[in-house]
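Q: Joint fold for the lines below.
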Amino acid sequence: MTAQYRLDDVGMRYGEAEVLRGVSLRFDEPGLVALAGPNGAGKSTLLGIMAGLRSGYTGGCFLNGQSVPHWQRRDFARHVAMVPQSLKLDFPFTAEQVVLMGRTPYAGGLFESPQDWDAVERAMQLTDTLEFRSRDFRALSGGERQRVILASALAQEPRALLLDEPTTFLDLQHQLTIYDLLRRLSREGLLVITVTHDLNLAAAYSDRVVALRKGQVVADAPPCDALSVEKIREIFNVEAEWLQRPGGKAWIAYGD
Amino acid sequence: MGIDPVTPARAARVLLLALIFTAAVAVVTPLIGPSSISLTKAFRGEWPDAQMFFGVRWPRTMLAMLAGGALAVAGVLFQALLRDPLATPYTLGVSGGASLGAVIAICFGLHSLAGLPALWAAALAGAAVILVIVLAVAAEGRRLSSFTLLLAGITINSVVTSLIMLLHNLASVGQTFAIVHWLMGNIDPVDAPTLIALAAIILPLCFAVCMAARQWNLMSVGEEWAAARGASPQRLLLIGYVVGSVLTASVTAITGPIGFVGLIVPHALRLRLGGDHRLLMPASFLAGAAFLTICDTVARSIMSVEIPVSVVTALIGGPFFIAILRSKRRSLWL
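A: Joint structure:
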């Protein structure tokens, strides 16, 4: 079964500051969704609510018809995986051990089962992390770490994958590789929702762009509509221009 | 540089080695001391070997084993919960509470409380009071997190420490001596029922903590990391803090605060074995038991007077630890 999200009039404040207001969204089918918007628009908070990591919001957030806080945690973790922006470890774990932790929601005992190992192997293969599986996570480069974190989330074998700026620390080649992978996974039935600041990646890869500004949804459409020149001006307050490359995809150029 | 993951085979291999080493320490250390003991005579029940072995040195070794193992496990647990490699069983104030209780008992000249020796009872009561206060402060008005726990624990620990200093200052000379003696920590032989009671607390708790190792793995990475993988960080923090405190308090009540074991044993093992608590925790129990027993044996036999065991744990442990750090910087794994 695929994951279906429904958000009804979600609002959230941190003290005085209102970070989300009246957010209603539906995610009914698999696909790659880019969550865009300026800093402080509430993207990460929204992702946190959907991942079951934030409480104290108003309105409702439902996964497959059931309110997220009412899910049994282990069961929820088998449906939804979250990839944080970065991860700092204070203790020596190998890359493989970090990925293995993704199998905890399936744990039946103290050690991993053969199925657990299969899932870990697959996740590390997909993210191209097998070659440094036995190295200390802390000794890896930022991009390598990010791929290991993604592998750990994939090892959860989720139906929905939530990512908070997953490619911030990645070089160009790995940015594209990761987005290729995310698109492939979404074609295979995964709902992928990723926060991104890179409008060109969003335009090139996503099926749908949801844009937030000051805690409200200001666009929810396929990329060519959600990222039109007018919308970009409204959302980000910058001038942009779609450039058609000969024989290729269009490209968004910003600034003067 | 490669490292194997923690599989049942690797865990069994490492823990078996540790078990053999610790068992050897348990058998050999009671034989060491100012007067030599013959193991065969002791087992034949001949005087004085049997009395010395079974009445004095064996209980002392057992106490050191239980105390060392419990402190090391509590250390690993607190380090994981607080995500702080420098956390010790004493960071969060529980042993401070135990010390304050004991110091109060000394100052008021109490001899027995609730059927227990006054020092133990007062120390346990002090630890319990501090445990409740720290939890109340840490969880007041917001969610319990490792940060609020650390903040509350450290603050209350320093308040308790200054109260101890105040009482120390007001005490008579005789009391001052007793206070200092207690605060330095000592492995004094205890009778069999006490040992059995201590074992009945420590062994099941340590076993349960080890069985939850995968949860501590998650917590040692982060609370959101754990929550996103099906764990309940707040509940784990609460349970971990209470269990670690019970372990620490039950040891501290009998021995006083013995430093370094809960810090250095987990640290040294983590360098060799990696961060996976499925291996780290049971190995810490065994190594902590062996380490404190060896230190105590040195403390009681190296000079004509007994020196405080805390002095030895630091004097042996410090250089040993630095040697490990230096030699293993490049290949961190066993």
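Q: Anything notable?
A: The first strand of chain B starts at residue 112 and ends at 113. Confidence is low (pLDDT under 50) at residues 330-334 of chain B.
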